[in-house]
Protein: Thioredoxin reductase
Amino acid sequence: MTPTTHHTATDPTLHDVVVVGGGAAGLSAAVTLARSLRDVVVVDAGEPRNAPAAGAHNLLGREGVSPLALLEAGRAEARAYGAQVRDGRVASVARTDDGFTLTLTDGGVLTARRLVLATGLVDELPDVPGVRELWGTHVLHCPYCHGYEVRGRWIGVLGTSPNALHQTLLLRQLSDDVTLFLHESPEPDDEGWEQLAALGVRVVTGRVREVARDGECLRAVVLEDGHVFPVNAVAVQPRFVARTELYEQLGGEVTEHPFGSFITRDPAGATTVPGVWAAGNAGDLTAMVGAAAAQGVMAGAAINADLVQEDVRSAVAARRRSLTSTGAAS
Structure:
């Protein structure tokens, strides 16, 4: 049986919360809010960042689950508790006296007292042919998300930043055959060279021309000078750019980081913009699926508590007005 949802606002079209983004973070926030009988709507374009991956990992109890299957299950759980899940995109948001008005790209309009931005991030990949085509399958960035699946194989690291050395050392834990292609990354310092030598990591200088493939299969890393290095997997460091357009429309300022940009949030997800919470990769560039889901739960709980306090203040004020008017009438 679907629980009865409490509508605390005077305007029946005013939702308690609109969640923008229906990934692990957004759906977890929606479930948490709906279980507190909040009127919550999730707006989602159905394009999860991890869709190309075969499985989501480090997720207790659901290890290796298909990302798309996980989201379908999450949608079903949210709906079972009374949340609405709406397919679409939010084009713009504006503050109102009651909270926020969101305009969707299909022309629809939603109003809400609170807002959760679980909009995720965009991976800005290096402009090397083959990288984008194999992204999420043979080209990866996170040793914890997909490293186990390429353990013991020939792994190449495409250097794009000073973080290439750290990424190489993490992957060396998983394979004895790791090659660092410096490409655009700076050369290691003396300590870095010593570490790579001690671990038997090959280092290749020169720019990479392409990540060669046969259809959907990775074949090799090819340098601009034509040298070919067979590999089974390639790791890269994208620039992580959170989707912050809606946050900026509300006056929020984006925080820059050497790895990208994101929305600053407190441990419960509250941002510097009143009434707006962020969860998942929008506010944490390194959050894996489990961490993103946990952040959604924390944000949902914090928002419910915030709304409870607002509703209590309104109820107290209404009671006082009633007592005052009753006393005046007598």
About this structure: The first helix runs from residue 24 to 35. The chain has a mean pLDDT of 93. Residues 14-123+239-325 form a domain with the FAD/NAD(P)-binding domain fold (CATH 3.50.50.60). Helices lie at 24-35, 67-80, 143-146, 164-172, 190-198, 245-249, 289-329.
